[in-house]
Amino acid sequence: MSVVLADPHVQQFREQIEAAETKLGLELRARLQPFQDRYEQAVRDGNTALLMGICPAKHGHWGRICVLDGGHETSLEEPHWGHNSLGQPIAWVGSAPDD
Questions:
Q1: pLDDT 10s digit of each residue in the chain, 99 long?
Q2: Model-level pTM?
Q3: Which residues are registered as beta bridge partners of 84?
Q4: 3-state secondary structure of 28
């Protein structure tokens, strides 16, 4: 697996995907930023009830947390959206970068 991931073509493809995720994240920011604000307020307040209703998919391992409500992929037809570990808005489809 590490040989495949080290391939220059695979690395180039990964960079293209990350650029597309960042671009889409920025494009959706105006509409979805209130979800990020709500998430940050819930973290500050320790509002576990609200935090439990946020997207339950496992993204934290990949340095990203979706701040939309659970079920958003079907009810809102939105991709996952939040900020990456660098604090940049990001949008993605699937549960992890390797999907």
A1: 777 778 888 889 889 988 999 999 999 999 999 999 999 999 999 999 999 999 887 676 677 888 999 888 777 678 889 988 888 899 988 765 544
A2: 0.76
A3: 64
A4: helix
